Amino acid sequence: MLVGLSWILVCQLVGEILARVLRLPVPGPVLGMVLLLLALMVRGGVPAELRSVGEGLLRHLSLLFVPAGVGLVVHGARLRAEWLPISVAVLLSTVIALAITALVLSRFTAGRADSAE
Fold first, then answer.
1. Domain locations in the chain?
2. What is the dihedral of CA 44, 33, 87, 97, to 10 degrees?
3. Is 30:15 a contact under the CB 8 Å cutoff?
4. I need a surface site. Which of 22, 25, 80, 97 has the fewest CB within 10 A?
5. Interatomic CA distance for residues 40 and 19, integer angstroms
6. What is the largest CA-CA distance in the chain?
7. Residue-wise pLDDT tens for the chain (117 aa)?
8. Within its chain, how far is the Cα of 37 from the centroid?
């Protein structure tokens, strides 16, 4: 398990270093995930150690929502004061995400239907 967790943490560290050195507007952990994905693609699969750590994290994924819930409680006054712009942003981003997901899905299913014929 230590090896799998080390993979994740090293990729996150490298992503954080790249984000800071290159002054990229992308969070380091996101770059780390991209690096991990690329490493796994080059490697041709997921090692058993990394798979077990990933499955363990997914089993306890609900714990990652605790900080967000605490943030809602702590910043409740600000949320009440700025509810309209926050609501508009959440609504618009949801609609945009659904539309893009629908477009991607329709492209993939259209390509699949063409290849099936």
1. 1-64, 80-117
2. -30
3. yes
4. 25
5. 21
6. 58
7. 889 999 999 999 999 999 999 999 999 999 999 999 999 999 999 999 999 999 998 999 888 889 888 988 999 999 999 999 999 999 999 999 999 999 999 988 876 665 655
8. 12
